[in-house]
Amino acid sequence: MPAPARLLSRPRRPLPDRMGLTRRFVALGLGACFALGQPPFDLWWVAAPALVALFYITRWDTTSKSTGWTGWLFGLGYFALSLHWILEPFQVDAAATGWMAPFALVGLAAGLALIWALAFWGGRRMAAGPFAIALCWATVELARAYALTGFPWGLVGYVWAPTPVAQWQAVLGPHGLTFVTVVISALVGQGLAQRSLFRTIGGTLVAAALWITGIAITPSAQDLSGRPTARLIQPNAPQHQKWDRDFIPIFFNRQVDFTAQLPKPDLIVWPETAVPNLLNDAAPAFEVIADAAVGTPVVLGIQREEQGRYYNSLVTLDGAGQVADRYDKHHLVPFGEYMPAASLFARFNILGLAARAEVGYSAGPGPALIDLGVFGQALPLICYEAVFPQDVNGAPRRPDILLQITNDAWFGTRAGPQQHLSQARLRAIEQGLPMIRVANTGISAVIDPAGRIVDSLPLGRAGFIDVPVPAPLAATPYSRTGDWLAVLALIVAFAALWFGKRQRPIDPDQPAA
Predict the structure, then answer these.
(1) Rounded to an integer, what distance in angstroms lies between the CA atom of residue 187 and that of residue 199?
(2) Among 66, 136, 138, 334, which one is most buried in terms of CB atoms within 10 A?
(3) Is 242 marked active-site?
């Protein structure tokens, strides 16, 4: 029986672009491979080739929209795997917040990937080939560190953290190293795609030069004999027990016992929110701590209230147990320490994970220095503040040491705390300064100015260690210029791209070279 005429005239559906679909899965998989360059994996030798392969596959994207999709899928694979620790805070009180966990991970990964998609789309609109994409990508990574409250976690340049190339952060900063990384990857990726031996070998030689010179500029390990000693106190209080009335005395007494041990160091450091009282009511607790310290200064984390506002603070106690100095955390964690648009989210019963009162913590006035006696002037960093290079560089004057106290119990026992430690090590490299880092559940460590760990306490273990603290080095180029060098490099690169384009306009919807 013949088919009706109306069916014969129906237009035939186009066949699916199977090669395009395959490339989408490849882009997603490459993003996951790139995430393996982050702790706890630190497989830079997997991650770096994945970055090259990404630029290689963009040659088959025939439109700017297609290129944007490639960037988004790569970012989705990267952020979903590297930030999987974001699930952990929602499991602390799983009955109340557990339902938010998958939405938080998918939303965060997809949203951050959208920023990368914008770079790929915009770069493809600007010019054929991968270099415009690389420049746009470096630009959005710089913007990611500053826009809104900023979130410079897992920057592209951090792929080099376990290698000597990381020493270039002391010169270029994290965004300068990201710029160099994506440009080299674009050069090698395009060389492979076009079978250009010159570009492939050229890009590889530049990467090798970064590695070799990174070894050359790595500061030598210091002789620590005679250096002042800090005691790192790690109570290992799991987050679900930290504020439980039955466990509070156990964790507090544990820290007091560690403080009382002999011989005495030059400084004792407790972690973030280590004292269960508000500062306003902590005088009895401070007396107990001072008796255990027997004249040794103590730095500790505590919360305080002033005129109805709550602050996440750090104080130093002198030998008599009196508050000698105080610092209020100024760079707060959105949705963790405060709620943007709190009244709106309250309608849906979405509350901050660590929020005290209805609007969470209040921010302090900004970076400040505190006096640590024989250690000199210290820049205090409470938890999340250590992931912001610009905040560390924003000290009112150059400190002698960096001091981070944190409560990483929120983030489990794998990726989150280890990535946080890795970024703390990069801050030490950037500034050429030693760091004392004390974490509630670990990893507590003393870090030298080259980012090496002098000694540490592992994750999930209660204890203390006395560690000699290295001396600071001379000011690094990055500590003098900040991110302006990266900004200047991007401006020059964009100008060169603009003036180097052919007179004939490039159709952004034509295949890339």
Answers:
(1) 6
(2) 138
(3) no
